Amino acid sequence: MSRSSQDFILIAVADEVARPEAAHAAAVTGVEVVTAEDPRDIARLAPRARAVLVCAATAAHVAALGRRTGLFLVAADPGPIDYEAGLRCHAEQAFVLPSQAPELLTALGNKHAQVKPTRHKTIAVTGACGGVGASTLAAALARHAAPSVLVDGIHGSGGLDLLMGLETANGARWPDLQLGGGGVDAGNLVQALPATHDGVAVLSAARAGMADPFTLTLDSVDRVLGSLRTRDGLTIVDVPRGVIPGAADHVVVLTAAEVRPVAAAAAMVAQLHADSVPYQLVLRHRGWSGLGVEDVERICHADVSAEIPLIRTLPKSTELGGLPGRLPKGLAQACGLILEEAGWFQ
C-alpha cells in the first residue's frame, strides 16, 4: 500500500469499538479513509495523511513517527478519554464516539480546509547481498536528484559522509540527534546536516576512535524519515538487507548479475510483494556477469527497471575523493530510470 500525497484520513485505532465509529465519521467528510492496524503500515501512512485518528493504544507510536499536527484521539463511549496519552502525542482534540461524532466531523472538516500538501518521496535502497554497491547507488540517486537528503540507515556502516566527500565537513551526525520520544523538525534537521556543493544533505554515522555506545535503530530511522516527510523533496535512505523502514514509499533492490545475489534478490522481492511494498529490481554488472536480464527476471519473477554497467574507474575515484560530482554516464542513466520508475520527476 502506498500513498504519495495528503489525500486521505488515516484511522490508526486499535479499539475495536471506536474504530468503525471513527471510520464512519471520517467518511462523511468525503475524503478517502484508510484503516491501518499493522505498525509498518501506520508508519508508512501516518506522516502523509491529512489527519490521523488514534486511540490510547496507538497514540505513542504515531507521535514517535514525527507527526505533530492533525492528530485526533478517540475513545469509545462512555469513555473515559486517556488525556495523558493525548498530551503525549500532541493530539489537537479528543472525542468519545459515537456521541461526539459531529464535533469530530467539524474538526476534520477544518483540517481539510487547512491542509497544505507536500511533494515528498522516500526511497529505500538495499542490496541483495553485501558488496553489491547499494550505498554507492543510494549516493548516486541522491546526487542525480539533488537537492535531496541522503540518510545512512545502517548501523556501523562507516559513514555515507565518506562516500560523499564530507568526512571533514561540520554538521550533525546520527549520535548528535536528540530524538527523545518523538521526531525532529525537518527544516532544522536539514539545515544542521553537512551538505555537498550540489545540495545533498547527508545524515550519516559518526566515527569514533573508541567503543561507541550509540546504536542506530530502525525506530530512530523511521522517526527521522517521518519528520522529513513533512517537507517537500526527496529522501534516499541506505538500508541493510531485509530491514525496510515503514516510512519508505518505494524500495530499490540492487543485485549483481550473478547466481547467489540473484537468488537472494528473488527472496527479497517475493517478501516485498507479499507485504504490498512498491519496489523495483536493479541489475549491476561487475567484473563478470553470469546471468542476463531475462535470466534475472525469470528467477525473480520481476522486471529489471535499470542496469548499471561495469564502470572500472568508479571504485578507485570514489575511494580517493568520494563519489564524482558528475556521475559516469552509465550510472547517471540508470539513476534517471530508477527515479522515473519510483515516480519522482523533477
Automatic annotation (TrEMBL):
GO terms for biological process: negative regulation of cell division. Residues 13-112 form the Rv3660c-like CheY-like N-terminal domain. GO terms for cellular component: cytoplasmic side of plasma membrane; cytosol. InterPro entries: P-loop_NTPase, ParA/MinD_ATPase, Rv3660c, Rv3660c_N. Pfam families: Rv3660c_N. Gene3D superfamilies: P-loop containing nucleotide triphosphate hydrolases. One of its GO terms (molecular function) is ATP binding. This is Rv3660c-like CheY-like N-terminal domain-containing protein. It comes from Corynebacterium endometrii.
